[in-house]
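Worked example (supplementary).
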Amino acid sequence: MLQTIKKIGVLTSGGDAPGMNAAIRSVVRACAFHDIKCYGIYRGYEGMIDGDFVEMDARSVKGIINKGGTVLKSARSNKFRTKEGRQIAYDKLREAGIDAFVVIGGDGSFTGAMIFNQEFNFPVMGIPGTIDNDIYGTTHTLGYDTALNTVVDVIDKIRDTASSHNRLFFIEVMGRDVGHIALNVGIGAGAEEILIPEEDLGLDRLVESLRRSKASGKSSSIVIVAEGDKIGKSVFELKDYVDENMAEYEVRVSVLGHMQRGGSPSCFDRVLASRMGVKAVESLITGKSNYMVGIKNDVMDLTPFDQAVKGKSKINMELLRVSDIMSI
Amino acid sequence: MLQTIKKIGVLTSGGDAPGMNAAIRSVVRACAFHDIKCYGIYRGYEGMIDGDFVEMDARSVKGIINKGGTVLKSARSNKFRTKEGRQIAYDKLREAGIDAFVVIGGDGSFTGAMIFNQEFNFPVMGIPGTIDNDIYGTTHTLGYDTALNTVVDVIDKIRDTASSHNRLFFIEVMGRDVGHIALNVGIGAGAEEILIPEEDLGLDRLVESLRRSKASGKSSSIVIVAEGDKIGKSVFELKDYVDENMAEYEVRVSVLGHMQRGGSPSCFDRVLASRMGVKAVESLITGKSNYMVGIKNDVMDLTPFDQAVKGKSKINMELLRVSDIMSI
Amino acid sequence: MLQTIKKIGVLTSGGDAPGMNAAIRSVVRACAFHDIKCYGIYRGYEGMIDGDFVEMDARSVKGIINKGGTVLKSARSNKFRTKEGRQIAYDKLREAGIDAFVVIGGDGSFTGAMIFNQEFNFPVMGIPGTIDNDIYGTTHTLGYDTALNTVVDVIDKIRDTASSHNRLFFIEVMGRDVGHIALNVGIGAGAEEILIPEEDLGLDRLVESLRRSKASGKSSSIVIVAEGDKIGKSVFELKDYVDENMAEYEVRVSVLGHMQRGGSPSCFDRVLASRMGVKAVESLITGKSNYMVGIKNDVMDLTPFDQAVKGKSKINMELLRVSDIMSI
Amino acid sequence: MLQTIKKIGVLTSGGDAPGMNAAIRSVVRACAFHDIKCYGIYRGYEGMIDGDFVEMDARSVKGIINKGGTVLKSARSNKFRTKEGRQIAYDKLREAGIDAFVVIGGDGSFTGAMIFNQEFNFPVMGIPGTIDNDIYGTTHTLGYDTALNTVVDVIDKIRDTASSHNRLFFIEVMGRDVGHIALNVGIGAGAEEILIPEEDLGLDRLVESLRRSKASGKSSSIVIVAEGDKIGKSVFELKDYVDENMAEYEVRVSVLGHMQRGGSPSCFDRVLASRMGVKAVESLITGKSNYMVGIKNDVMDLTPFDQAVKGKSKINMELLRVSDIMSI
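After joint prediction of all chains, the assembly is encoded as:
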């Protein structure tokens, strides 16, 4: 028999991303729409263990759809990795009468939810929130589209100064495991080369490409480097290498860092968050559990947590080719 | 036998949209990559008739990927609607040795290209560029994503003042035939109601909805109105109606207008433009003609002009429901 | 003997402006710094009459420095214009133990404060908050610098489309009595002509100037029109006039409206607000009353309310000349 | 007898800054207005020595007022530091008939102009363009206001993530010799502490201040560090120090770097650039030479190069106090 859901908790976990607040708002309002009580759980699983809950109604999420970060705050929780920690979390949820939760986060957060579900048969749903877009089962994670615009906007500024001085810039962007951000902002910002975790361009080809670019009349160049690029050099090491091997360039480095995570979400991310929150709540209501909400071909979709966690998000290889053609 | 393409012309036609410059750049560079000469055709079909061509190489499109508007300028051409006009255009193209062209624009521009192709068996390809996203055969037109962000950003600003004064705002956004912009920015900006060409909400339901919203404790409200909304009232008439029928609100109106067309393209639009330009050029090279390049499920796609022109872009009805839930 | 101030109220009144939240934050924190209790008064003088007060400590203004609008909300109050209304307001303040207030607003708000001070000998200070910069006694009002950037940014977008189509745009910006915004954004956005309340350019000279500009090779033009421009024509009437008298232009109109009031304050406005809040609180502490805080030559300054209200903010005539030269 | 100026050169030199293009435009149009020919000199003094000149008329600076960087490009020139280099530059200018120039740049560029003037009695004027605002004789340099907004905008984004995770961020901003940027963005972004070249806060006081802030209930903190801060520690060393001495914080670092130089100029910088260009040209016309144009109390002003170069731009000490109060 289908257990009726009466109180849903919502938390954000792991690294924050633009659109998390819009997703919280959506979960809260979808609950209100379906006459379900909703509780905000602060500081991710850490706050779950501490019983740091607060009831939220439709009005309590007013004015947050366009705010970066997460009003529920986020944290990584070592305690939740232990059986004891999860037991306390379960007790706290039960105490508060919460009978299901939606976790907004990434791979690690979903793994935690999956184990929790297995141990306590507790209904859980996930919403993918991370700027890296490194999650299987959805073409877009919350915050990814916003991050692309944030990064492209910053690189446009750096290009102003690069092209005024005929300089070469190595710009490090986020992406430890996948090159989505690097690849798209590389094309979007007109980069000369893009170094990603998926492909080893090789230092020689990089230098050769920069030489060809200089010869073709380009006065300045931007090279985008994902954190986890395959060459395995940091942007600073790349600078040193080029300094030694290419006298023709004055090289500069920029590490974009945490600013990439912040800012007001793009329209796309706000709409996506709104859709995902509704889908998560309505999936729980209809008895589903242990899934991640995703978007595929502009349709809401569910992927079992174990697949979402095991699967690998793949870059679009067409983009590598487009990038090559564009940097002619 | 396949006729070899040696010189490709590129033009922008109809209303301008962010990403057109990125598409021009892509066409030019894809030509350079394939050792094809490329000519910019100024002021759309009008400039084609005037023979207003200029050769463009890879360097001549430097620094335009992030610029709004179109460096080739755009225009509507009455002459091109006549057989005589098109004959002159054909003669001018032949004179310059141009043996194919890519037109970046909307429905009207594609119709022109299709007729031109029929009359002269001249290879043509289209790239959909319009903020309205009202073209069949592609899930996204160039400029649409940028416009969503531009509009949401402006509505965020209006909301600052709306919520400081407990006001109701009617905001008119673009969309004569389809409600894509209205629907998405409505959700993205947290609008109370969204009036679109596809659905007749009815004035009574609008007033009722606003009353319910006031009763629920909301202090300010935003109603998004697409230019071509089904109720058939202008934002000014809507204001008058509410002024007369709802004493509880102080009503204001804002018509966003042409600013929606401008601005630096989003990362999405820059990448889309880059992909579309490559696809258009390479399709011409492989002997294809009379198609519009589109994107479907993140894959480049071709739609015959006659289908693109006859078909209708449809809104996602799920969004209407999400909007209802979000405005609880 | 100097009466010791123990509780200070703070309110925002009249039209909202970016920087008001930063000023509220500053008043609250300056109070906390000096061990004075601070109360937020909601909805301007209307909330004062209703006794709508809430105690605010340093943490309660967290995260608002960069938000547009006003968290205390604003309103116009007819009741406060009556002796009875003000008596109730006084009683409510006394009841709550509030013994001074800082009002953030414009001319009308200061007049109210001045009368209130005369009637009840109640210590009051004013902080000028309005995007129009139309207040005597300060070179900058809160929100003015932000509005200039907001407007210039929008006009940049309109110019993208204007120059793509060889169009003439009449753009209406705020400024009923003074042309500060029009004059500065006119220069900043490279406008052809600027119509302000201070000067009657005359329709003939406008048309002549536009003709000269066309002849000089300009393909598109922007004319900035302050709401209260001296010619006395609305932007729509101007369009009609030019449509009739200048066949060479395709004319469009844009009324920017309320978006000009919103948005995150510029760095300048945030710093100015922070300085003004401190100055207002410390002036009250040292026994001053009935003054408006202002900035002159980058130094904080006090102007008696009666002078601030009677005086007139003047535009910098040098800018008119610069504008003429720039539009050659 | 006053030598008539017939051809004026304009160049940008040293680090680029937003507003440089607006200043170039202004110099070119002021020349056009006064019927003087104007030549753009590429790549600063380096291009002067190479005779890299191009004639510019009013139309050739179209559409650049809102662009970051410099269309004339900039460079540092070692050759111009030699007598021989300057002699060649002089010969090239004479050859082209250029009889005066306006240099847009910083201290070093003015020193070069001053020496050149002494050696060849060649009329020169300077316009201060640098985001650091570190030049004596003007309250604002070109680009400074824009940089403040750029930086504050980025810190707002970092704060989104900082406050979602209860983190402490050390953010390095530009300012080797003066703390203008650090001080203003520190107040504007609500920083906990601001480390500037002018004042040695001391590591102990920093730690103490952070402890007090944590105790007062603040969950996250931002510390702004000017490149040339007096403590003499890099942001990375500061992080290490706090990591060792304050277990209560999770510390992160962000070095903003070159993005601070780019971007579309603020309205203030565009207007300032327009005014300065006119002033520079008209000063040359009236026979003045060897001055830097500046702004003081919103009035255009001239400062002899030797004073501009020797003098020191001072921070406003009131801001230090305001910052202390705001971070309570």
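Two points are worth noting when inspecting this output. The radius of gyration of chain B is 22 Å. Chain B has a mean pLDDT of 94.
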